[in-house]
Write a structure and sequence with these properties.
Layout lengths: L1 E5 L4 H13 L4 E6 L19 E5 L5 H8 L5 E4 L6 H6 L2 H21 L3 E7 L23 H20 L2 E7 L1 E3 L8 H10 L4 E4 L5 E6 H14 L5 E4 L4 E3 H12 L6 E4 L14 H7 L7 H14 L1 H9 L1 H19 L1
Parallel strand pairs: 1-2, 1-4, 2-3, 4-5, 5-6, 6-10, 7-9, 8-12
Antiparallel strand pairs: 9-11
Helix pairs in contact: 1-7, 2-4, 4-5, 6-8, 6-10, 8-10, 10-11, 11-12
């Protein structure tokens, strides 16, 4: 099996590449990433040198570059590549449209020309919008995005559906709840609060802190994606969630407890525009059709994640300072330039 993983130097993508290479030692994996602000080659340390893995620095929205890459032939394409931060999308959504919508369309065209290739689109529960106090999002829930980021992901999902219906492509879409775990870029809630706490800096909590998210450990997510890639039905959507609903205040308290830091670090800040109140995922379809279930206990997962950030302080300090770009240029720059010449 030869797999193309786009956005594979980001948080979930890198964890998935690591998971695939550990579980399928006979598979060939080609990782593509443009290495924008959240892409980090350090996330792939230890697997870049593997004989069955190759890294390509490229923009998925560049048709000619992707066409040349698709000439290699792939059995499957897994698309993680996306701009994903809600606040950034509110400030300027143009990059989100280019990467999340145009980029997905370029990849779908590559799959269409190649034939016999499965396309797995990694989406998000944010396309469903916001829930009230009860209920959960199912795969039949209407799309009702409330941020430019979520709207761009919903548009990409609809493009995937259109290519299935119009061209008969073998595509599957997954929509996951919030992920946490190692290598997550520290602008997201859990890594931001962990790293700020470890540095004795304030933890900025939006609004009243009672917004609810459904959390899943990234390793459980990767296991779900592997099952959908191998056994998911063509044209279907699979929600991925672990039934871990927590308010942002609960997350804050767990982080403070795990880091041994005082509640005085918490700072309530003005809520962001269009802030969805609650997400909750119904993953019954995934559990019943593909016999998936989460293995990580949430408290254990948070404790393990805090321990990872404690043990990898140099990683997140480089990321937060911007030093990681200079670091990976020093460590990997020549290899990247040589690869781009091939």
């Amino acid at each position: 099996m030869k797999i193309l993983v786009t956005g594979g130097a980001g948080f979930i993508g890198a964890n998935f590449v690591r998971y695939l290479l550990g579980s399928h030692r006979d598979w060939q994996v080609v990782t593509v990433d443009l290495l924008t602000y959240a892409g980090n080659l350090e996330n792939l340390a230890g697997v870049l040198e593997r004989a069955n893995h190759r890294f390509v620095r490229a923009d998925i929205s560049d048709p000619s570059r992707m066409a040349a890459l698709f000439e290699e032939g792939f059995d499957a394409v897994v698309n993680f590549a996306a701009e994903s931060h809600v606040d950034r999308s509110i400030e300027d959504c143009s990059l989100f449209l280019r990467s999340n919508v145009v980029g997905t369309q370029v990849l779908l065209e590559g799959v269409r020309r190649m034939r016999g290739c499965r396309f797995l689109q990694i989406s998000t529960d944010e396309v469903y919008g916001s829930l009230g106090a009860t209920g959960k999002f199912s795969e039949q829930s209407p799309l009702s995005p409330n941020s430019p980021y979520a709207a761009s992901k919903a548009a990409a999902d609809l493009l995937v559906r259109a290519y299935v219906k119009s061209h008969g492509l073998d595509c599957v879409v997954t929509r996951s709840s919030n992920n946490y775990g190692p290598y997550q870029f520290p602008e997201k809630l859990i890594p931001l609060f962990i790293t700020n706490a470890l540095a004795d800096e304030p933890l900025p909590l939006y609004g009243d802190g009672l917004n609810v998210r459904d959390w899943i450990h990234v390793e459980d997510h990767c296991r779900a994606l592997e099952l959908v890639l191998e056994k998911g039905r063509k044209g279907e959507i699979y929600n991925v969630g672990a039934d871990n609903e927590r308010t942002n205040r609960e997350i804050t308290d767990l982080v403070l407890s795990a880091t041994g830091k005082p509640a005085s670090l918490v700072r309530y800040v003005a809520d962001r525009p269009g802030h969805d109140r609650r997400y909750a995922i119904d993953a019954t379809k995934l559990r019943t059709e593909l016999a998936w279930r989460p293995l990580w206990d949430f408290r254990d997962g948070i404790a393990e994640t805090v321990a990872w950030y404690k043990n990898n302080r140099s990683w997140w300090e480089r990321v937060k300072s911007g030093e990681y770009r200079r670091y990976y240029e020093k460590m990997y720059g020549k290899r990247l330039r040589d690869a781009e010449k091939k």
